[in-house]
Amino acid sequence: MNAPPRQILLALLGGSAALVVVHALGRFAFTPLLPHFLADGLFDLQQASRLATWNYVGYLLGALLALALHSPARLHPGLILALLSNALLTLAQCFASDYALLLLLRLANGISNGVVFVLAPALVLEWLASRQRAGLSGLVYLGFAAGLLLSNGLANWPAESLAGPRRWLPMAALAVPLALLGAWLLARLRLSPRQTDSAGNGATPATSLFDRASTPLFLAYAGAGLGYILPMTFLPTLAREQLPAGDPLLEGAWRWTAIACLLSIPLWNHLGTRLGDRRALLASYALQALGAAAPLLWPGATGVLLCAVLVGGTFVGSVLLTQRLARSLQPHQGPRLSAALIALYGGAQLLGPWLAGLWVAQGGSLTQSFALGAGALLWALAWTWLIPIRTPHKEIQQCPT
After folding, report:
1. HEC string of the chain?
2. What are the C-alpha distances in Å from 326 to residues 353, 396, 399?
3. Is the dihedral of CA 112, 118, 119, 121 positive or negative?
4. Alpha-carbon gap, residue 78 to 92, rounded angstroms
5. Domains delineated in the chain
C-alpha cells in the first residue's frame, strides 16, 4: 500500500509532536531549567537528583505499561490518554512549589512519557512500513531534537521575568496545543489486523527476547541508558560548576547539545545504512564515551562544549541504531522487542541521578560523577563489539522501530 507524501508528512508530524511534548518539554526541559531552580532555592542539588530519579522510575514503569497497551483495542486510547495527561502534568508543575507534590508530578510525568515514547514511534513506523516507507523511520525523532533546542530557549529567554515553579509556564503553553495536535494526527493512523497482531495482541511470542545474539545488545543498551543520562540531566549545572560567571556556555551548553542532536539524526540514519548498524553503533558509543569523559579530561569550556556536542550528537543515534539492529537479530518480535529495550534503557538510566546524588552527598563533585557515565558507555561499546553480524540491512527496513 502506498501513501501520498502529505499523509506521510502528517504521520511523521503526529509522532514528532508527541515526542516534543513528552520528551523535550515534559522531560528534558528539566535540564536547562535546573540551574534556575537551584538559584531560586526551589530545591537543592541532592533533591534535584531525587526528582530526576523519580521521573526515570516513572519512565521505566511507563515503558512496561506500554507492553500491555500494544493490542488493537488499547493502543490508540492508551497513547492519546498518556499524551494529553503528560501535557496537563507539565501545566500542573507551574503551580507546584511543594517538594513532595513535585516528586509525584515528576513520577507521573515519567509514566506518561514512557507510554508515549514506546507507542507513538511504534504506531507511526509500523504505519510507514505498511506503505513501503520504512526508510523514513528515523525522521520521527527530529521533532524531539528540535524540541530540545526549543526548550533551551523557553528556559533561558524568560529567565529574568519568571521564578520558581512558574518557569514551567512557557513549556506548558507549548505542550498543551502540541499534545492536542499530536493526538488528533495519531488517532487518524490505522494499522491492518495483520500489523496489529504483530505489534502485540497478548499472544506469547515464538521465541525468547534473550538469545546468544540479542543478549549482548541488551547488555550494551543498559550501559547506554546509564551513560548518557548524567550529561543529559546535569550538563548546564556542571557548566556552572566549571565555568566563570558570564561564560556563554552557561546558557549555551544545552543549545549546543540540541543542535548536535538535531543534525545527527539523519547522519546516523545514513551511516547505519551505509556501514551497517553495528559498525555505526560502535562509532556512536566511542564518541559518546569521549563526550561524557570530556569534562574530566579537559575541565572548563573545552570539556563542556565537547560533552554537549559529542553526547548530544550521538545518544539519539544510539537509540535508532539499537532498535534497527535488534530487529535484524529478531525481526519477528516487532514492537514487543522495542518496548523491552526501552524499559531496560529506562531502568538503567534511573541509576545515574541517584548515584550522582549519593556522590554529591558524600562530598564529591558533580564533575567527578561523570566518570560513571563514561565507564557505562565503554561497557556498551564492549558488548556491542560482541554482537554477531547477521541479517543485511535490507531486511531491517521491513521491520522498523
Report:
1. CCCCHHHHHHHHHHHHHHHHHHHHHCCCCHHHHHHHHHHHCCCCHHHHHHHHHHHHHHHHHHHHHHHCCCCHHHHHHHHHHHHHHHHHHHHHHHHCCCHHHHHHHHHHHHHHHHHHHHHHHHHHHHHHHCCCCHHHHHHHHHHHHHHHHHHHHHHHCCCCCCCHHHHHHHHHHHHHHHHHHHHHHHHCCCCCHHHHHHHHCCCCCCCCCCCCCHHHHHHHHHHHHHHHHHHHHHHHHHHHHHCCCCCCHHHHHHHHHHHHHHHHHHHHHHHHHHHCHHHHHHHHHHHHHHHHHHHHHCCCHHHHHHHHHHHHCCHHHHHHHHHHHHHHHCCCCCHHHHHHHHHHHHHHHCHHHHHHHHHHHCCCCHHHHHHHHHHHHHHHHHHHHCCCCCCCHHHHCCCCC
2. 27, 9, 10
3. positive
4. 21
5. 1-189 (1.20.1250.20), 206-401 (1.20.1250.20)
pLDDT digits (tens, 9 = 90+) for 371-395: 999 999 999 999 999 988 764 444 3
Q: State the average pLDDT for the chain.
A: 85
Averaged pLDDT, 123-152: 80
Whole-model pTM over 0.70: yes
Burial of residue 91, with CB atoms counted within 10 A of its CB: 0-12 exposed, 13-18 middle, 19 or more buried: middle
Rounded CA-CA distance 186/178 in Å is 12
Cell of 68: 500491555
User: Sign of the CA dihedral 63, 68, 73, 74?
Assistant: negative
Specify the amino acid at residue 265. I
HSE at residue 106, side-chain half, CA atoms within 13 A, is 26
Looking up cell 537551584 gives 38
User: What amino acid occupies position 318?
Assistant: S
Over residues 89-111, mean pLDDT = 96
State how far the Cα of 369 lies from the Cα of 389, in Å rounded to an integer: 34
Could you report the per-residue pLDDT of 25-57, keeping only the tens digit for each?
A: 999 899 889 999 999 999 988 899 889 889 988
pLDDT at 339 > cutoff 80: no
What's at 260, amino acid-wise? A
Q: Burial, 400: exposed, middle or buried (Cβ in 10 Å; 0-12, 13-18, 19+)?
A: buried
Dist. CA 401–CA 280, nearest whole Å = 17
Q: Are 112 and 47 spatial neighbours (Cβ–Cβ below 8 Å)?
A: no
pLDDT beyond 80 at 187:
yes
